[in-house]
Amino acid sequence: MTTNAPAIATEPITDAEIFAAHEGGKLSVVSKMPLTSKRELSIAYTPGVAQVSRAIAADPGMHATHTWASRLVVVVSDGTAVLGLGDIGAAASLPVMEGKSALFREFGGLDSIPLVLDTTDVDEIVETLVRLRPSFGAVNLEDVSAPRCFELEERLIEALDCPVMHDDQHGTAVVVLAALTNAARVVDKSFDAMRVVISGAGAAGIAIAEALLSAGVGDIVLLDSKGILSKSRTDLSGVKAQYATITNHGNLEGGTREALAGADAFIGVSSSKVDESHLEGMNEGAIIFALSNPDPEVLPDVASRYAAVVATGRSDFPNQINNVLAFPGIFRGALDARARRITPAMKLAAAQAIADLAAENLAPDHIVPSPLDPRVADAVASAVHKAVVPDAG
Questions:
Q1: pLDDT, average across residues 113-131
Q2: Containing domain of residue 52, as a range?
Q3: Nearest alpha-carbon partner for 262 in 194, 308, 189
Q4: Is 225:187 a contact under the CB 8 Å cutoff?
Q5: What is the predicted pLDDT for the residue at 13?
Q6: Among 34, 164, 257, 346, which one has the highest count of C-beta atoms within 10 angstroms of its own C-beta?
Q7: Is residue 95 domain-shared with residue 210, that is, in the same domain?
Q8: 321 & 180 share domain
Q9: Which helix (H) or strand (E) holds 46?
Q10: So which residues are the catalytic ones?
Q11: Whole-number average pLDDT of the chain
């Protein structure tokens, strides 16, 4: 048992402050060209713009160089799995998508606009984005419920000739892999000897499992609301049934207590709470990532009684595992390389870049860089670009 009790790092934020900041939305469109004279208007709009449109019609390749589309990421949601709020609908999801677009601009240097769609039909969403394709360069899917999110992402990747990524899945997985890489270094454990428990078998949990298996983690145990995913369960189908056959090498059954007995790491991406007594069975030098927001599966002060390394998804505790470390750089690197798809190799490269930045000052309370570290997006973008074009840079 170890004690690395974290401290609150920020002042409380009031409701008044939050609502005032969001009033009128968080985004605006700002022209890159001055529009203060007739000459400037003639260049930016009519008659000058007609020459550019004619040129694009004659040479479609100019669409990438003379519009903003090739550097524009659309943040797309149907509002069915928003944060910890669940299915709140497209309109209520818009503040979150505005925030995501603001993060793309601030941390990735990419233009971004939110598109919330008032439909949950996968066919309709795919058709909408296919028809809008000339207007953007990449798609960030956000807050789409499982299991539809798996089908939607797969179909969009096939239908569109541009990068598509469901950030709730893959952005989360990239940052978790980076954090676990460094946490394992802190406790001196190798991936191949570790058993990792993932609480939550939805979009994020499945993507994390996929990433950890690709990185060589020895054994993974997944939990959903009914318990451990195992070959003996007859209520599993689809992706869950698939992962029940490639995880849980010990054929464990039961719930959180049984899963955590002898486990090296716990990763929480569900709203389920973890009983403190269940943590007692974890191995020495345990790692606990309680990532649910705003309420972690287990609070850091409790988790630190049993774990050598503790992380959350919150900014007011050490070791914030936040997708903003990944997605701006991943998309920028993919667009820089003119990649059609975001591949597993690109995601692994992104995770390693994030881990390497924190490794410079590795400690139990510093396993990932700060989301505000200005080096992160550049490092991730460079790593992703090199994964596409090995001889680049």
A1: 97
A2: 22-167
A3: 194
A4: no
A5: 85
A6: 346
A7: no
A8: yes
A9: none
A10: 45, 100
A11: 92
